[in-house]
């Protein structure tokens, strides 16, 4: 028994330097960063700038792959069963923490992801076509109440923050809305500009269309008004005790070596601090929203608990 313990200790002591050496040399090949929304939207544009910055720091390309759909949860699902070597990373939107409450899955969003860091969050709002008779949020609410189930609005997907926040607002105000999900902001903007929707709930990827006079902002969802849309009231100003900025960050497969996670954390934190990333975010009224590896993991745990209560409140939980 004693000889077996010595052999096991010897094997472990030999393995430790090997793992350390691999981490110190990491990365030796390109890294894939899977994001949850299509090309051309605010998430894609800002994350590509971040990836480019990180590439220069890491000395290897960080290649962005778009995997939209399923409420933004596909990148996190793609981490399951992937080698825990740091070469596959994923954007982790808030929808990931709602997934087990709405869909049967065989993995845990808190335990089965190595959280690297949080990078930013969205600024959200509701827009309507510029020629819409719904001139204000008051008009929106009145029309929806007078026409139950007929006021169509689009979001970037079922169970995303725009969808759930709108449904929560509707519940609080006694509205019944018609929700139409899309895969991302680019598709959603095409739909509302094409006359297929009466309204859209989205991140401020709609800003260029507002500035071009094609859309009008009815409200925004931060704690304060956005500098870009100073005339648009917040939900809180409109009497709804709601603030939504939907933080998101980067995760790696469960079991990724601590030293590799630290290398990724340090590189992406430095990438976040560069002016090119801040400028890209500012186009969409987004700002860097840093959380360290430990803080981001704690955020994941807390959010997982909080989102359960929200899904249950809206009656969207899967049957038990």
Automatic annotation (TrEMBL):
Keywords: Receptor. Pfam families: TctC. It comes from the Bacteria. SUPFAM superfamilies: Periplasmic binding protein-like II (SSF53850). Belongs to the UPF0065 (bug) family. This is Tripartite-type tricarboxylate transporter receptor subunit TctC. The lineage of its organism: Bacteria, Pseudomonadati, Pseudomonadota, Betaproteobacteria, Burkholderiales.
